[in-house]
Known about the structure:
This protein has helices at 21-30, 45-53, and strands at residues 7-12, 38-42, 58-62. By secondary structure, the protein is of the alpha+beta class. Helix 1 (21-30) packs across helix 2 (45-53).
Amino acid sequence: MAEAKKSLRITQVKSSIGYKKDQEQTLRSLGLGKIGRTVDQVDNECIRGMIFKVKHLVKVEEL
Length: 63
């Protein structure tokens, strides 16, 4: 059986105001931008790297 792709539910919990511009752009790349907004993303190295960059602004759950 093929392995099912795992996904991540990412929720923005803190504003990007006062942080570097590249962190705001990373949030936009993830599909976020407002506090409370939630997106589902595929779990891969690229997404994990973006999450690591803004880990202080988001909450992540594995699905």
